[in-house]
Amino acid sequence: MTITPDSTPPPGQDADSTNADRTGVVSAAPTADEFAERFLTSTLATAETMSVYLGERLGWYRSLADHGPLTADDLAARTATDARYAREWLEMQAAYGILEADMSGTTTTFDISPGVAEVLTDTASLNYLGALPRMFAASFGRLPELLDAYRTGGGVSWEQFGTDARESQAALNRPWFESRLAPALAGVPHLHELLSRPGAQVLDIGFGAGYSTIALARAYPDARLIGLDIDADSVQMARRNAEAAGHGDRVHFEIAGGEEAARRGPFDAAFAFECLHDMPRPVEVLTAARHALAPGAPMIVMDEAVSDEFSGPADELDKLMYGFSLFVCLPDSMSSPPSAATGTVMRPSTLRSYAEQAGFQSVEVLPIEDFAFFRVYELRTG
């Protein structure tokens, strides 16, 4: 599943409903009726998103995919949940067009189509999004703390966001790491050759649930990998995942910040998958990684493929990343002062600035395309 730039005007904007200021910047000027309609649509989408959270967490989608069509009573019995709540949820899902309702018999039954089931239940599919609402649920559960952070300049840490956030990110990235990371790296000959060397030492900073590190271990069986992450629960989860995948002997996960990378090594390559924008002190981490690398070895940074510059109305990817930034990534970064306060929408120029301050001499975008929401950078000292 890939988000592409939206070529249509933002809601409420057309050729006759824009205003340009003296700098030439064009902004949307919706009428009250147009914005009210747009905001109602957004509210419906919020309700839909959180209803998906209920269905995913309670096992309702999975039960329908495995045993449907089902009545409300059947679904409740199979999932050890309450039938009245199940009926209300099922009717709401049908009202939104997520599920299909059959009212031809004496009792209404509900079913899930193969396409919807893939998106909401198939954790190996590149279209899988079933865990996405869990990230926002984790954030919404911390709204009092977020409001306080916004007032005071404080933050809310990844640890505070808890299991839903941790498992959401892991589940959404897992299919991409497991099915696409190896071929993506194989398509970059000089990097593939480096990682294929017998005994190659590889560092993975901010590994989360460890799926990136495990994918590297699977793709390069002669390499040895060390992962560093500050979240103790993530480290435990990653260790379990590595053992389950049969790579516990070659993958070593440690509770440590990226700033501690310089104490390890030397490494033939270092990676930071979708984590640099969360780090309160990214320059320090990149500097430590540079010192940990063997001479001429690359640092690979994968982060969100947002647009190059802020330009007001944006495409869907930038909008989504601003949502993550407001509710998760920026508060997480600001929870550990002093913080660079990067946010999820890390522009390429920001990454280049961090790399230069850390002592890297070149930053190149690798020819890896159609890899979820991400852009892959290679940082080198020479």
UniProtKB/TrEMBL annotation:
The Methyltransferase domain, residue ranges: 198-310
Keywords: Methyltransferase, Transferase
Xref: Pfam families: Methyltransf_31 (PF13847), WHD_Rv2258c (PF21320)
Keyword Transferase belongs to the record: yes
Location of the S-adenosylmethionine-dependent methyltransferase Rv2258c-like winged HTH domain: 49-121
Recorded superkingdom: Bacteria
Gene Ontology process terms (BP): methylation
GO molecular function: methyltransferase activity
Region: Disordered, residue numbers: 1-22
SUPFAM superfamilies, per database record: S-adenosyl-L-methionine-dependent methyltransferases, Winged helix' DNA-binding domain
Protein name listed in UniProt: Putative methyltransferase
